[in-house]
Design goal:
The protein has one domain. Helices cover about 80% and strands about 0% of the residues. It has helices at about 1-15, 20-40, 45-80, 85, 90-120, 125-155, 155-175, 190-205, 210-235. Helix 3 runs parallel beside helix 6 (about 125-155), helix 5 packs antiparallel against helix 9 and helix 8 (about 190-205) runs antiparallel to helix 9.
């Protein structure tokens, strides 16, 4: 644990001196303000507006994860071709877990800002809906962070960004009938579809399908995320630090 804490502190120091922290603050702030401003004059009903906003965040998040993960790993490569991570820390598990935590925490902050600012300006829905939406967005993003961290280490920033673009497109398509019955097994769709189900429950609490869909999604997402973390941890302990290809 002390080793992990030291790694987290070190990684946060690196993170502070880049633009990544500001990206996690300014982009969600700008997007939420833009949507609140647009919705103030839009003729759509409240349910459509809230659902649309959650869907946009869920669709955009895989691309943002791809960009940030690739940038984070590229910074590590440029500082010594990963030798600091692989040789400068006693525990590789701590080094890898630290990197994942340092990616996840700003992501959580970005979601909190995006949902919090929107909720403040668009108070049609109950506060609990926004809290639940933020929780589902965070829960659905952990697996993509793990995946993109692996892709960034193994194949480089370009591969992570490319995958993020594809995932965002798939996430958008999965919100249509193409995703029905399949989205549980496609991690990049979890955030958007879970929030869609949440809004459906809010609109019609007696409709059991919304609860069932969230239950099915979480039954797949939770064990899949745990397994992905353990597998990636096992892989990193044996990784030789080969140069990422752009």
């Amino acid at each position: 644990m002390p080793t992990l804490i030291r790694c987290i502190r070190s990684d946060f120091q690196k993170f502070r001196h880049t633009s990544m922290l500001w990206i996690h603050i300014l982009i969600p702030l700008a997007v939420s303000i833009l949507f609140v401003s647009y919705y103030s004059v839009s003729p759509w009903n409240a349910e459509t507006k809230i659902s649309g906003y959650f869907e946009v965040i869920g669709i955009a998040f895989p691309l943002m994860i791809g960009l940030i993960s690739g940038k984070c790993v590229e910074q590590e490569r440029q500082s010594g071709n990963f030798q600091t991570m692989l040789c400068g820390v006693k525990s590789r598990s701590a080094a890898y877990t630290s990197k994942l935590i340092v990616l996840l925490l700003p992501g959580m902050i970005a979601i909190a800002i995006a949902i919090g600012v929107f909720a403040s300006g668009f108070q049609t829905a109950p506060e609990i809906l926004y809290f639940k939406a933020a929780g589902l967005l965070i829960a659905g993003s952990v697996f993509p962070y793990i995946l993109h961290l692996f892709i960034s280490f193994q194949f480089g920033r370009g591969a992570s960004i490319g995958l993020g673009i594809v995932e965002s497109l798939i996430s958008a398509l999965a919100l249509t009938g193409l995703g029905d019955g399949r989205w549980y097994y496609i991690p990049c769709t979890w955030s958007a579809r879970l929030c869609d189900c949440l809004v459906s429950i809010w609109i019609n609490p007696s409709l059991a399908i919304g609860y069932a869909e969230i239950g099915k999604g979480m039954m797949v997402a939770i064990p899949a995320t745990i397994a992905a973390f353990l597998i990636s941890l096992f892989w990193f302990q044996r990784w030789e630090g080969s140069r990422s290809n752009e």
